[in-house]
Design a protein that fits this description.
Layout lengths: L2 E2 L2 E12 L3 E8 L2 E10 L8 E8 L2 E7 L7 E2 L4 E5 L5 E12 L2 E13 L1
Parallel strand pairs: 4-6
Antiparallel strand pairs: 1-2, 2-10, 3-4, 5-6, 7-9, 8-9, 9-10
């Protein structure tokens, strides 16, 4: 087991993806199957970089990173609360870091299991 602060690290991956290309991840968090679709959108929405997510089902989240195209890198300043497990009602969190290299996004993505709410 690896812990970062109070959170248990479940998954840690590095992906190389083009803009608007879907990254699909399946894992098990606290005996609960979790599916995550990541998209690094080329759309800047005329504002600062942002993250939006929607539930595609009770255990599938689609997370879109808008305007994350900085060559120096962009990161979530702290883990982001995504939801709760259905098994023991513990928090599911994620952290992300993206660096744009030419036309490729280098994404570091981590999933954590947090405390009970």
């Amino acid at each position: 087991m690896i812990k970062i602060g109070a959170n248990e690290l479940i998954e840690s991956h590095t992906f190389l993806a083009m803009d608007d290309e879907e990254i699909y991840l399946e894992t098990v968090v606290d005996d609960w199957p979790l599916k995550i679709t990541l998209i690094l959108s080329s759309s800047k929405n005329n504002g600062p970089p942002s993250i939006n997510w929607v539930a595609l089902s009770e255990n599938h989240a689609k997370i879109t990173f808008n305007g994350w195209s900085n060559a120096s890198g962009i990161v979530t300043p702290s883990p982001v609360h995504l939801g709760m497990t259905d098994t023991t009602h513990r928090k599911v969190l994620f952290s992300a870091c993206n660096q744009r290299i030419g036309s490729i996004n280098r994404v570091d993505f981590q999933v954590y299991l947090g405390e009970k709410a």
